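Example with several molecule types.
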Amino acid sequence: MKKINFTKLTPYFYVAPFFILFAVFGIFPLFYSIVLSFFKWTPSGPEKFVGFANYIRYFTKDPYFGRSVYNTILLLFTGSYVQHLFALPLAIMLNQKFVKGRDVLKTIYFIPNITSAVVVTIIFSMLFDEKFGFVNYIMETWFGLPEIHWLSSSPGIKATVSIILNWKYIGFYTILYLAGLQAIPSELYESAHMDGANVWQQHLKITIPLLLPVIFFALSISTINGLQLFDEPFILTGQYSRMGGVDNGGLTTTFYLMFLGFRLGRFGRASAVAWLQFFIILGFTVVLRLIINKFDYTIEKKEK
Amino acid sequence: MDMTDSAVLASRRNSGGEFSLLKPGRILTYIVLVLLALAFAFPFYYVFVLASWPNDNIFVWPPHLLPGPAFVDNYHALFEQVDFYRNLFNSAAIATLATVTIIFFCTMGGAAFALYELKGKKTLFSLMLLTYMIPGSLSIVPFFKIINVLGWYNTWLPMIIPGMANAFGIFLMTQYIKPAVPIDLMDAARIDGMSEFGILLKIIFPLAKSGISVLGILTFIGSWNTFLFAYIMLPDEKLTTFPVVLAKLFSKTSGGYGALMVGNAIALIPLIIVLLFFSKQIIAGITEGSLKG
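Resulting C-alpha cells for the full complex:
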C-alpha cells in the first residue's frame, strides 16, 4: 500500500523543483517588478509611490527611451530579420545533392554562433577600427571609398552591430533551415519538375510553404532575442560610460534598462522600461503570428 | 506518364545538365559557399594575427595580414593583468555544474510529464511552457535584489541554481523520454522491487541518453558564453568568467590590445578543439534542440 502511494507522489516530487524555483525566481520578481515600477527608487532605496509617473516620463520628457526603442527595432530588422534572407537561400544551396564537403562547410558557418559575444564583438571592433581596421583598408584600397565611421557615428554603430549579428547567426539559421529542408520528401520536387515547374516555382510552391513552421519558429526566436539585444552594442560602444556611443546609436532597450537599474540604481524606472519592452515584444510576436496564420490560410485555400 | 517516359525524361535532364546547364551553376554555388566560409572564418584568423604583434605595432597602415613575432610577450602582458586561466577554469566549472544539475532536474521533470500520472498534467505543462515565453530582461532588476537578499551576490550560485530546473529543458526531455522509455519496463522493475528513484537512475537516465546529450550541449555552450548575467552577479575578478574579464580588459585597454587579443585567442582554442571532435554532435544537438523546442 505504502509503496503505491509513494509511486503516486513521485511525479509531484519530480516537477516540484521547477515550480518552486519558478515561484522564487520567476513569479515573485515579476510581481515585484510591477510594484517597483510604481515607485521612485534611488540607489539608497524606495522613496515614494509615484503611480504611472515612471511610465509616463518615457512618453513626455525622457528622450532616451524612445531612442532606445527606435534603435532596437531598427536593429531587429537589419541585424535579426535580414539574416533569414541570407540563411534560407544558403540552406537551399547547401542542400543541393552535388555539394561536397557539406559537413565541413556547416561547421565553419556554425562556429560564429557558439563563440562568446564578447570575443566576437572585440574582434569586430578591431576589424572595423576606423583608422587602422582591415575593413576600411579594403574599402579604401579596393573600392576607393573614404574612411567609414563605423564606430563614431550612429548609423555606423548600427551597421557594425548588424554585421556582427548577421555574421553570428546566419550559420545557425542556415543549419536550422537545412534540417527543415532535409525533412521535405524529394519526390515532391521530382513530380513538380515533371509538371514543368522551374527551380523558382518549386521553391515558391514547395519549399517555402512546407518550411513555414520552421520559418515562423526561427523568426520568433529572432524577434524575442533581437528585441532584448544587449551584449554586442554594450561592449562595442564602451559599456555604460558612453550610453551607446555617438548619438546613443547603440543604446538598445535592454541596454537602457541596465543603465537605469545597475548604473544609476533607479530600479523603478528600470522596471517601467522592462514592462514597456515586454509589451513591445508581445506586440511583435502577435503580429508575426497573425502574418504567418494568414500565409497558412492562403496556401490551404489555393490547394483546395 | 509511364515509367519509360519518365526514365527518358530523367536521362535527358541529366545529359543536358552534364554538358551545358548545371556545371556553371555548380561552380557558382561552390564560389558562393567557399567565399562565405572564408568570411565566417576570417575573423578567427585575425585574432591570432593581432595577438602576435607588439602593442606599438598593432595598428598600422596597411593592416597586418600575417602573424607577427610578439605572441609570447603579449601572453606575459595578459597574465600580468589577470589570471586568465583561472577565469577560463571558472567558466568551465560553472558551465559543468550548470549542465550536470540541469540534466538531473530536467530529466526528472521530463520523466514526470512523459511517464507518470499527474493531476492537471496538461495545465501544468502549458503553464510551464508559458513561463518560457517571459523575456529574461523583464525581471532582471528584482531578480538581482533577490540574489542580494539570499546572499548569493558574487558567488556562483545565481549562475547555477535558478535555472537548474527550467521550462525549456523539461519540455525537451519530455519530448525525448516519451518515445524512449517503455512504461512496461518500469512496471516490471517495480514488481522486482525497484524504487521510483532507482527507476529514474537505472532505467530512465540511460534510455534518455540522446535527449540528455542534446540538452547537455545546449546548456554547456549557453552557460560558457553567458555575459550579462555574470557581469551583474559575479563582478569579482577571481571568481568570474572569462567573458566578463575580457570585457573589462577591452574597456580599459591600458594593458594594450595585444594582450587582449591573446586573451581572445586563448578563449577560442577550447572551442576550436571541441568543434574539431564534436562538430557533428553539436550541430545535430542544436538543430534538434531548437526544432523540438
